[in-house]
């Protein structure tokens, strides 16, 4: 391999590693799906929990009203049975009021039973949704933690690679480095291509024999006629 390209090839390998790390970083699963499912489950739970609170509040109101009605009915019955100082008209009105309070009490008893059933059913719905929400939250937390850990690892790796690139770039002749960087910018980050079996590994184009010979046996710095990348030959590609 042309010794002028040795340092450039070392730099190219770092650049390729950086590209791979950046690609992995961009492809990381952030847990967006799990977050959406958790937020949906939470919204459903909160909505049904609000309905449950409303039902329980209605039941409490009905129970308080029932207590008031019962106290009032007992008070009226006591006055009615005593009958002291009351005219027949007043006694008749009191009797009607007691009967009305009795009907109201019966209505409230039925209403409270209905609200109890509704609250019990709604409580089961809320409990199921709470379990669903908890599972979704756990899945989101797990995915989020995994993303955070892997993102941190990749950022650390990319920072290390950037330092390595800076160090290796010093060993490349300035003119060649500039030429390489121009090509790299235009070619999705890859400015150098190996020749393997007379083909450019970047675009898989078959190269002319004289080009392969020149790269192998001279100090010529050539580019692929098809993709425009600089060419090099590495007999044993290091891992």
Notes on the protein architecture:
- The chain is mainly α and 239 residues long.
- The protein contains five helices and three strands; from the N terminus they run ααααββαβ.
- Helix 1 (3-26) packs antiparallel against helix 3 and helix 2 (32-82) runs antiparallel to helix 3 (88-169).
The Cα radius of gyration reads: 41 Å
The end-to-end distance, rounded to whole angstroms, is 17 Å
Instruction: Specify the biggest β-sheet.
Output: 3 strands, mixed
Number of strands: 3
Q: Roughly what percent helix?
A: over 70%
CATH architecture of the largest domain: Orthogonal Bundle
Name the poorly predicted regions. none
Which range does the strand content fall in? under 5%
Which key features would you list for this structure?
single chain; 239 residues; Helix Hairpins; 2 domains; three-stranded mixed beta sheet
Quick summary:
The chain has 239 residues and is mainly α.
Topology:
Elements: H1 3-26, H2 32-82, H3 88-169, H4 174-186, E1 192-196, E2 199-200, H5 209-217, E3 230-232
Parallel strand pairs: 1-3
Antiparallel strand pairs: 1-2
């Amino acid at each position: 391999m042309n010794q002028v390209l040795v340092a450039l090839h070392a730099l190219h390998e770092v650049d390729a590693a950086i590209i791979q790390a950046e690609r992995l970083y961009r492809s990381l699963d952030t847990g967006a799906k799990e977050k959406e499912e958790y937020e949906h489950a939470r919204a459903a739970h909160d909505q049904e929990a609000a309905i449950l609170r409303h039902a329980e509040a209605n039941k409490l109101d009905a129970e308080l009203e029932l207590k008031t009605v019962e106290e009032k009915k007992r008070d009226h019955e006591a006055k009615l049975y005593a009958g002291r100082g009351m005219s027949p008209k007043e006694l008749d009105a009191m009797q009607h009021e007691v009967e009305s309070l009795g009907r109201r009490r019966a209505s409230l008893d039925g209403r409270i039973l209905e609200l109890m059933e509704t609250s019990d059913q709604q409580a089961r719905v809320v409990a199921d949704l709470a379990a669903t929400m908890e599972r979704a939250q756990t899945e989101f937390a797990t995915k989020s933690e995994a993303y955070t850990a892997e993102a941190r690892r990749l950022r650390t790796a990319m920072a290390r690679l950037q330092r390595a690139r800076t160090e290796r770039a010093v060993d490349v002749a300035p003119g060649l480095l500039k030429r390489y960087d121009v090509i790299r910018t235009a070619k999705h980050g890859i400015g150098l291509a190996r020749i393997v079996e007379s083909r450019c590994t970047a675009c898989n184009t078959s190269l002319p024999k004289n080009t392969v010979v020149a790269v192998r046996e001279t100090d010529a710095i050539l580019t692929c006629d098809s993709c425009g990348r600089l060419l090099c030959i590495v007999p044993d590609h290091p891992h």
